Amino acid sequence: MITIHEITKRFWAGGAQVLAVDHLSFAVGRGEVYGLLGPNGAGKTTTIRMIVGLLRPDAGYAEVAGYRTSQSPDEVKARVGLVSANDGVYPWLTVREMLLFFADLYGVSTVAARDKLETLADLFQLRSLLHRRCSLLSTGQRQRVTLARALIHSPPVVLLDEPTRGLDVLGSQVVIDYVRQLRDEGKALIVSTHRLDEAERLCDRFGLLHQGQLRHEGTLEELRAATGCNTLVDMFRSFFQPAQVAT
């Protein structure tokens, strides 16, 4: 469903070239939650933006449901629901207006859009907010609206960049439960998060990024066997430990 092959991205910063993503490859199948994990600056958000077509890779390619982002960007966008770390709300629209606007952009029929809106409003506790302008929403409320916006067209692929950002414990649990439901429906999901405790509960496999490179990949048990560490936190700590010098 999702294939990333040797994808590479460089940026210029302060007159120097920075290699943000370095020949990264992985795949995510139907009914799988893939945790793309790493510290700040590891290349997680850059990778997600290349998958959906918001950034063009310098080398390699991203493919979603058989469509390469570089060749068929509209086909890819139609099949992806993106929850970004940045707010995806229009301040002067009401919540209802914004969700129906995005449904129309994706070509969802009026009847189907209204039915889906009702389902998502109940799921993410948005019913009391539907007539409120997005500019008046709290951080957690905006995040719930962003989640609903990404799912209004029932995409087969969902990319979640810090999906529980700004949510309390109960709100975070709603998201976790719904991600599991999407997995059971056969969707392919990538979750990028710094909340490693949630990742351990949520993801089927993990790709551990450091300095734009995939350092380890596998299930939690496979990662434990490969690294000798019990938790994801300990695995990432090991990346920053200085190498032992033989004497």
Put the structure in a nutshell.
This protein has 247 residues and is α/β, with parallel strands linked by helices. It is 37% helix and 26% strand. The protein has a single domain, classed as Rossmann fold (3-Layer(aba) Sandwich).
How would you portray this structure in words?
By secondary structure, this protein is of the alpha/beta class. The chain has one domain: P-loop containing nucleotide triphosphate hydrolases (Rossmann fold), CATH 3.40.50. The protein contains nine helices and ten strands. The strands form two sheets. A six-stranded mixed beta sheet has the order 6-7-8-3-9-10, with helices on both faces. Strands 2-1-4-5 form a four-stranded antiparallel beta sheet. A hairpin with a 2-residue loop joins strand 9 and strand 10 (213-218). Helix 3 (95-105) crosses helix 4. The radius of gyration is 19 Å and the shape is globular. The relative contact order is 0.17. Residues 243-247 have low confidence and may be disordered.
